[in-house]
Design goal:
This protein has 378 residues and is α+β, with helices and mostly antiparallel strands. The protein is 33% helix and 28% strand. It has seven helices and 16 strands. Strands 1-4-5-6-7-8 form a six-stranded antiparallel β-sheet. The chain has a four-stranded antiparallel β-sheet with strand order 9-10-11-12, covered by helices on one side. The protein has a four-stranded antiparallel β-sheet with strand order 13-14-15-16. The N and C termini lie far apart (127 Å).
Length: 378
């Protein structure tokens, strides 16, 4: 009997020891897990504070929110960005110096989450930090330091509040641009910041075909602006900056500043062709069109003595590169066909040079349209 009690006591003792180890082990495991979570939160918050010079700590902030929709990249559908969280940033004196909005948008895929820091002192976007994303790594990886620097110390008191997209990562670029624009809208609601608003409609846009003034301005546009529906016919350079007014009401400075944004968005004509120069002595008009390279293809148009038709065109230079074709063959192929036939209907597609071929089609079509408008179409 004594031996049985000794055996049971041993078993009970071992069981108690195991129970204590299990209980305290579980408590320790939960404690360590909690500590890990705490450290993760601290690291996360610290990374947000680093967006703001002189920032020391964060405080939760209740934003008023904004009900706005933006276009899904590559789609005609729209969506509303999601405000995940918001913080005010405090300096070492406890004063609020910035606000941070963590916003989720859509790029190639859903779930592009980033933090946008805005200065309360000068209304500038101080910087942006990627939190998470579900983008294709090979595309997303093309967003380099040069891209991210666009979000540093960026003035928000402008009409053209945008960034340059990265080729091959356009959808991801647009996701961050949408987040940036939505952050500005939130800031406007929360802090009374006034976003510049211009009433402007581009009614028509044409290339300038007057050889006497073609070096002075490249486009002529008819616009309607302001609440009174004022109208003007204006002159624009190749980047759609205001040059002068031909007729109508005086254009305000706000409208002038808005033109480089509004005109391309109107999408009224193909503006890929750039007028470089017209030499009245030789009656030679030099134009270029971007293709595979940004420098693209440069073409000379030879104008007849009556200044009402194009007698021929000449291939000048090209920054293009393509596969399966000798350098310059695509450009010269189009030029030769146009000079012989007056059109490019008989030009076959060039294997391995689709972008350059499309650029040449664009510039030839532009030449035909320009010729029809020379000398007022006479």
């Amino acid at each position: 009997m004594k031996e049985l009690l000794n055996k049971k006591g041993l078993i009970i003792g071992l069981s108690l020891i195991l129970l204590i180890v299990f209980v305290f082990g579980g408590m320790y495991s939960r404690y360590m897990t909690k500590q890990i979570d705490v450290h993760e939160v601290e690291r996360y918050e610290s990374s947000l504070v680093e967006l703001v010079d002189d920032g020391e700590s964060l405080e939760d902030f209740e934003s008023e929110g904004a009900n706005l929709s933006y276009q899904i990249p590559g789609s005609e559908d729209e969506y509303s960005p999601e405000l995940i969280e918001a913080y005010t940033v405090l300096d070492d004196s406890g004063d609020e110096i910035a606000v941070i909005y963590v916003i989720e948008t859509i790029g190639r895929n859903e779930g592009v989450r980033a933090a946008y820091a805005i200065s309360l002192e000068n209304d500038e976007l101080l910087g942006m930090k990627t939190i998470s994303n579900n983008e294709t790594p090979s595309f997303f990886g093309r967003l380099n330091d040069r891209f991210y620097r666009q979000f540093v110390d960026k003035d928000m008191d402008v009409i053209d509040f945008s960034i340059d997209a990265v080729s091959g990562a356009t959808y991801s670029s647009l996701a961050f641009e949408t987040g940036m624009k939505f952050a500005r809208e939130l800031y406007a609601e929360d802090y009374g910041f006034e976003i510049i608003n211009v009433i402007l409609e581009i009614n028509s846009l044409e290339y300038n075909s007057d050889l006497d003034t073609i070096n002075d301005y490249q486009f002529v546009a008819e616009i309607t602006f302001d609440e009174d529906n004022k109208t003007s016919v204006i002159q624009l350079d190749g980047d759609f900056n205001y040059i002068g007014t031909e007729s109508g009401d005086e254009v305000t400075q706000a409208v002038k500043d808005a033109l480089p944004v509004f005109v391309p968005d109107a999408n009224l004509i193909n503006t890929d062709v750039t007028i470089n120069n017209y030499d009245s002595a030789t009656r030679k008009l030099t134009v270029s069109v971007s293709g595979f390279s940004s420098s693209g293809v440069t073409i000379d148009l030879l104008i007849d003595e009556s200044l009402d038709s194009v007698t021929s065109i000449e291939y000048v230079s090209s920054g293009e590169s393509y596969y399966e074709q000798p350098q310059g063959s695509v450009e010269n192929g189009f030029v030769d066909t146009y000079n012989n036939d007056g059109s490019i209907d008989s030009v076959d597609d060039y294997a391995g040079a689709t972008i350059t071929a499309n650029a040449m089609k664009t510039v030839i079509e532009w030449i035909q349209s320009f010729e029809s408008s020379l000398n007022g179409g006479n």
